[in-house]
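Chain A, query sequence.
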Amino acid sequence: MAEEGSVAPAPVSEPMDLMDALHKVLKKALVKDGLCRGLREVAKALDRRDALFCVLAEDCDHDGYRNLIRALCKEHNIPLLSVPTQKELATMAGIATVGDSGNVLRTARCSSVVVKVIDKDDPNATFVMNECQKIGKAE
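Chain A, predicted structure.
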C-alpha cells in the first residue's frame, strides 16, 4: 500500500511512432490555427521564419515544388520532415472527409504543411520536436 502523499510511478508507455505523433501534433496545430497548408501559405510561413517545422510528402510529383520547399527550409534552418504520401498528409492536416465510422470517405492531396504552433506540454509535440532536432543535426 502506498504511503499518503506519495506519488504512484508513471505508467511505462510504449515507444512513440513518428507518424502517429505527427498526426496528433498536426491535428492540435489545426485547432489552434497554427497549421499552414498549400504552397502559398507554406512558402510565406517559411520565408517569414514563422515555422517550427515543415512536412513534405515524398510522392509530390512536382520537382519545382519540392525544390522550393527544401530550399526555403535549408535557407532558414527549418527542420523538414517527410511522410510517404500526399493523401496521408492531407488526412493528417484535416483535408479529408471522414465518415461516422471513422473511415476516410474523400480526401484531397496535400504536398506540404508548416506547423507554427504546438502545445509544449504535449508529449507527442515533444517527441516530434526531438526528431526535428535530430534531423537538423544530421544535415
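The first strand starts at residue 35 and ends at 37. The two ends are 51 Å apart (CA to CA).
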